[in-house]
Target: Xanthine dehydrogenase family protein molybdopterin-binding subunit
Amino acid sequence: MDSEPQFFDQPGGYVGQPLVRVDGREKVTGKAKYSAEFPLPGLTYGVLATSPIAKGKIQRIDTSAAAREPGVIAVLTHQNLPKLAKTPNDPQGKKDIGAPMGFLPLTSDEIFYAAQPVAIVVADTLDHALHAATLVKVTYQAAQPIASFLDPKAELFDPQKVQDGKQDGHTRRGDAKGALASSAIQLTATYNHPVYNHNPMEPGSTTAHWEAPDRLTVYESTQGVTRTQSALTAMLGIPREQIRVVTKYLGGGFGCKGSCWPHTILTIQAAKAVNRPVQLMLTRKQQFTSMGHREDQTQTVQLGATADGKITSIVHTKTSTTSPWDNYAESNSKILDMLYATPNFEATYQLARANVMTSTFMRAPGEAPGSFAIECSMDDLAYRIGVDPIEIRLRNHADHDYSTNKPWSSKSLKQCYARGAELFGWSKRNPRPGVTRDGRYLVGMGMASASYPVHNSQGTARARLYADGHAVVQSGATDLGTGTYTVITQVAADALGLPPEKIRFELGDTNLPTAPNSGGSVAAGTVSSSVYMAAQDVWQKLIKVAVVDKKSPLFKAKPEDVTVEKGRLQLKKDPSKGERFADLMKRAEMTDVEGMGQGKYGSGYETGRSGSPAGPNNNTDTAGEHSMHSFGAHFCEVRVDMDLGTIRVSKWVSVMGAGRILNAQTARSQIIGGAIFGIGSALMEETIRDPHFSRYTNADLANYHVPVNADIPDMTVEFVEENDPFINAMGVKGIGEISMVGVAAAVANAVYHATGKRLRDLPLTPDKVM
Ligand code: MOS
Model:
């Protein structure tokens, strides 16, 4: 095969086309089955009863009233739930399980956080279970909880390392404090962030079915069937092969479905106890207290610069709330370290334990809040020296990654600024803040840079090509709703030379070849390259058949001289010599041929320019030579009503350089969705934790505000064409998270431009504007 991927540059290829979602019809007709929609024979319904106190002990638990209710099958508490082989509470347990939290409820009488489950009620109907759960009587010995790092009783500590599953800890390059002290310009700003909750339309849900005492199938609302299977293997102590995790459809996740949370294993143990399948779907209220959240945090950025606005130093600190057991903090500093040409850099984290569950990754973990801090501070710098916000960013453009001292694999940030400014009409902007009016509204225009890393990841896929011209392609990935089914169908169509309707792509099942979590923006890149490689394996097998087949035009050709073009095997040097795979297979009496592929993605597996992305093992000679990131720019116009304090986003443009775009339509939707997610974080989303009781006071969608259509203008999205040969066989960087990076800053920068008021406490609610 050629050393470069060759299918995707063909005119008429399906990759990149705005193919309508292949699962759209299933979804809108209600045929798509989500994890709480499997009506198994004998199905029962589980409901969690939870603690109103955030700290203390269960003194007495009386389940008799609940148990007497009609239809109730069992009421399970820490006293009678079947024991697990291992829990996150055990030494090493959290690590062995890969649990997001070092504590599992219903293992003791201790209460550590509000809404901690204290019982699981199983009944014949959901109504019966919901009602009975209210009848579980618990007497608590309550203690005074700590609600956050702001609590005067909270003790701040240096965690040395914070956990986001990938990295990290303190960072130090050069002499940041020294350089800051001697800088002509020194800016210090503090940014405050509330708790945010993931609110996927589909709350966390589990249907647990023990088919035999040691054989389990779980329909689970998870971003990763394999990671869930691994966690269950460790906790249940039964072999991996005997646990099947299925996730055919997901109604969103945003990171909260990236790990195996307590309700899943509690449902499985309840199913064991009642010896019937149990289905549990978190209530919307429980969604706020069962699958993590983005932690409340404060960040301070000290920025040193020369008189003409060149950054000399950044000193960044973050303080945030964590749980009684874990040292989790999303690592905000990474983006401050790499986004601009910063010769000196230092970042430190502080944590405080409080009576909350452990926070977790939420769309663009670290980059989302980190970008708010750096991108608002960059605007401060622009105004301080009187240059345009784009110009200050160009002056500090990083031609290589200062955090690793490596060249970029590709970077189109300057094109994103230029194209975004053009689409937005940035040149019409009056540089002076607080002076542009439209009737009663102050009008402001702001922008911000965006970036997200390409994380290392690998996965596998199987492709089975049939002589009759259809194919079944499989990879145990998940589709958050963002379009995995669709984009991988397009990749398979091009790679196998078939129209998309002749491809069936199956995902979301641990019985399929292993794929990584749909998280960290890795799914599209990893799964597309896995499928591409699986198709190459198919062709290699067919080429071997062709060259020994006397009736083939390719008889006696050397396999390496044969290539495949849209399903036709042909000589590289003389494409007229060749045949369609179907002709070859029929003559050889093959009904089908199967290929396996392993897709590797990220700098740890990078493919050199002269490397061989088409081989089963990517060239690792150049591994780690490049820093891999997507980049982009968001542009925002706001209209601010100073009498009412309301901010309305009236125009939006996002331009992204993110490698190969697999589907113009789903990619556009993905960026729009992420930008709306970011606008929500900027203007309205906030989970309020009562400072005395450490309880959430607005755990529902009536009081936790997310943007609706009326809050959002028409949005313009464009992608800069980018051909990155180092990422993987497909050159896909992934767009799940970059869509929301920098968004809140673009909004806040527009508000500053409109009003002359710099708001640094999210969300920017009317009380802060007036
Ligand atoms: Mo995403 S927050 O990496 O699931």
